[in-house]
From TrEMBL:
Biological process terms in GO annotation: defense response to other organism
Localization terms from the record: Membrane
Annotated protein name in UniProt: Late embryogenesis abundant protein LEA-2 subgroup domain-containing protein
GO CC aspect terms: plasma membrane; plasmodesma
N-terminal signal peptide: none
Residue intervals passing through the bilayer: 21-42
Length: 211
């Protein structure tokens, strides 16, 4: 009799475990389905970035492969969503020339961006005596002499989406703002002198955003 009771209890316990597992799977499925439906209805859009202007303080190739620069870049960021907020975190901005990084990383403070809100950042992007590839040195020197250079200002960071009280996990954010930046206060280049050897240029260039 005791053996039958043990086997009966074991069987009953297995049934309870199976029912609990089935209930948990159904709950997870319904929760995931709800999130997907809400996500589809809201249709989240990527933030929009614009490189508004740059102020050139220093731009100098001092040796064939040594480069120094100091540029203040004004970045416009807008959240196009009506029902979704965006948390920006771990964001760094830097400049590249022909796919080579030519400045240090400059951190942009973390911020929450509400529905349809706009943030404007004006970080300094700089580098002192930065070694550059030998094939890029002559190109930078030539561009400087010609009065302008194509640069990519890049922002790398992480974002989280906020829907009501629900906050998602982190997503990687990559922004690339390509722009032809004039150099020197030459007639017709649109530069405005704003200080000793500092010239500001209005650019208004849309950026490529990947999330």
């Amino acid at each position: 009799m005791s053996e039958k009771k043990c086997s009966h209890h074991k069987s009953k316990k297995k049934k309870v475990i199976r029912r609990c597992c089935a209930g948990l799977m159904i709950f997870l499925f319904l929760a995931l389905l709800t999130i997907l439906i809400v996500w589809a209805v809201l249709q989240p859009k990527k933030p929009r970035f614009i490189l508004q202007d740059t102020t050139i303080f220093t731009f100098n190739v001092s040796a064939p492969n040594i480069f120094s620069t100091s540029i203040q870049a004004t970045i416009y960021a807008r959240n196009p969503n009506s029902n979704i907020g965006i948390y920006y975190d771990n964001m760094d901005i830097y400049a590249t020339y022909h796919n080579q990084q030519i400045t240090y990383y400059t951190q942009i403070p973390p911020v929450y961006q509400g529905h349809k809100d706009v943030n404007i950042w004006s970080p300094f992007v700089y580098g002192n005596n930065v070694p550059i590839a030998p094939y890029n040195g002559p190109g930078l020197s030539e561009d400087q002499q010609n009065g302008g250079v194509w640069l990519d200002f890049k922002v790398d960071g992480r974002v989280k989406w906020k829907v009501g009280t629900v906050i998602t996990g982190h997503y990687n954010l990559h922004v690339t703002c390509s722009a032809y930046v004039p150099l020197g206060d030459r007639p017709g280049n649109g530069g405005i002198i704003v200080g000793n050897n500092a010239v500001k240029y209005q650019l208004s260039r849309s950026c490529d955003v990947s999330v």
